[in-house]
Design a protein that fits this description.
The structure is a single chain. The protein is α+β, with helices and mostly antiparallel strands and 112 residues long. It has three helices and seven strands. The chain has a three-stranded antiparallel beta sheet. The protein has a two-stranded antiparallel ribbon with strand order 3-4. The longest helix has 10 residues. The model has no long low-confidence stretch (mean pLDDT 94).
Length: 112
């Protein structure tokens, strides 16, 4: 298995969400998303709300201020787990590849 890097700044860091979507707890490393700003989005998908326990999830958008940073965790996951993460994320998000503060290239879900 070639690991895929996924950066999470929100609910994918939650152990209950990880168990529900990946069937295991993920191991990760702290990192930062550079040049993005964070806000909240209302979640209306009952399955996602049940898994996360939250009706509003964090969401990020590119910022004009390149000094802005979002703290989070970079996880090494499988392609199958990446597809499970895609299924978990609601239509408000889409996945893009970014360079993190550490220099690692990782997938992250940002505002669609």
């Amino acid at each position: 298995m070639t690991p895929v890097l996924l950066f999470s700044y929100g609910t994918l860091q939650d152990p209950a969400v990880q168990m529900a979507n990946f069937g295991r707890l993920l191991e990760g490393t702290a990192d930062q998303l550079v040049g993005f700003e964070r806000s909240l989005v209302e979640i209306t998908d009952p399955k996602v709300v049940a898994e996360s326990g939250l009706t509003h999830h964090p969401i990020v958008r590119p910022s004009d201020d390149l000094s802005e940073r979002i703290d989070g965790t970079v996880f090494r996951i499988s392609e199958d787990e990446l597809r499970a993460a895609d299924a978990y994320e609601v239509d408000d998000y889409h996945r893009v590849s970014v360079k993190l503060a550490s220099g690692l290239e990782a997938w992250v879900y940002i505002a669609a």
